Amino acid sequence: MDRGQATPTVVHGSPAFEGANIRTWIGFKHFMYLVEHAVLRWLRDNGAGVRELYSEYGLGLEITDCSVQLPAVLEIDDEVRAEVVRGRGNRLTVQLSVARDGARTTVLRGKVTVALVRERTANGHRRPPKSLADFTVDELAVPGHEHRRIPRGQTATSVLATGPAAFLWSWRAPYFYCHYSERVQHSGFVRTLEEVVDRYLADRGISVGRMLAERSWIPVVSRARVRLLDAAYMEETVHTVFTVTDILRGVMFDGRMDCYVQRGDELVAVATAQILHGYAIAAGPGAGGLAELDDGVVSALLGSGS
Questions:
Q1: Are residues 67 and 201 in the same domain?
Q2: How many CB atoms lie within 10 A of CB 62?
Q3: Terminal Cα distance for the chain, rounded
Q4: Would 252 disulfide with which of 174, 201, 238, 248, CB 3.0-4.6 Å?
Q5: What pLDDT sits at residue 290?
Q6: Given this model, what pLDDT does residue 306 score?
Q7: Secondary structure (DSSP) of 42-80
Q8: How far apart are CA 92 and CA 22, in angstroms?
């Protein structure tokens, strides 16, 4: 498709049952899965699908950056309309909407950066479709990000787990987080972001389950962004650091995730993410509104509580 053409790709779908963890509301991870699904359809509409790209052209689709805003809730039974249009360069714009009370309600606005990586595991070697040629890259690595050196006598843990607000979780990259037989895909790091936040909150004594049981606070994510910086390979250990960086208006907390793999005496940054998180009140006084983060919760989030 000509880059000047404004005709969007439109996909209709619905969220997976797996995403309805709190009542019947869908978590942010499954919003991003719907975006991924729409991007795959856009590729098919504009030259070639993922299988053809890999088998015929030796190219592997990689979502390298996905940034979303979530202005409204998504329910398990919602029928979602996804619209994808091409922006500048290798960026796509995605909007998800649902029918509510006779009108369409936007539940996601997103920006997605796409790369078609020349795969060493693929046999295909034809030239890619002209419409997708600008997306091709030789490797996943994003230039400009810094590696961290591990000084003599220290470890990845001692280098990364610094300060009371930094939470470190190290995990083995399983094959089911990977694609193209070797590396962790974007959705694997989306899953990592969800899990590291859950682990962080539990470690600080304010787990999701506790806040639900004691305060009827329901976790709400209004913004998230996950970026790939370099390849993380199957069965490597991924050292993941999560830090709460700011408290906004007393009702939201801004968090950052950074993921590294150790290669020799260096820690290579492979992914980074930001998330804006808060709580909705499910019952009692203030039901339906955002919960105010009291001093105890703020102290726990910032790592200054007991």
A1: no
A2: 22
A3: 58
A4: 248
A5: 92
A6: 44
A7: HHHHTT--HHHHHHHH-EEEEEEEEEEE--S--BTTPPE
A8: 30
